[in-house]
Amino acid sequence: MYKKILAGLGGAIALNILHETIRKNFTNVPHINEVGEEALIKLTDNTPINIEGENELYAATLVGDIVSNGFYYAATATNHNIVSGLMAGVGAIALPGKMGLDDDPVASNNKKKAMTVGYYLFGALVTKLIYDKIK
Q1: Which pTM does this prediction carry?
Q2: Whole domain around residue 8: which residue ranges?
Q3: How does pLDDT run across 74-90, given as a tens digit for each residue?
Q4: How many separate domains does the chain show?
């Protein structure tokens, strides 16, 4: 089981490296981090948890993203990598609006939608590659 978790975390880290590299160097690309930050603010809004500052919010969101995607990939991508990646990507563009979040950062145009799905598919494929090498 630990090999699946390691592979899942590897895929999640790869997804975030890809996303951050493209986000910081190009325009009109997905900003998945903005959806995560908004979700984290809403989640902690009526709690004693107080995340102050842009850097703390970014770091907390990044950690949450890596952990949650890592476990998702560990549970799904080690066996069903393509389906896992496609489902995660479709969820990332379809669910924010239904959850009361702004979906513009990932779904305002077809380019962002396709890239978002591609990012999650990439993470799933990296997970499977790592898993196949270490199992």
Answers
A1: 0.92
A2: 2-134
A3: 999 888 889 999 999 99
A4: 1
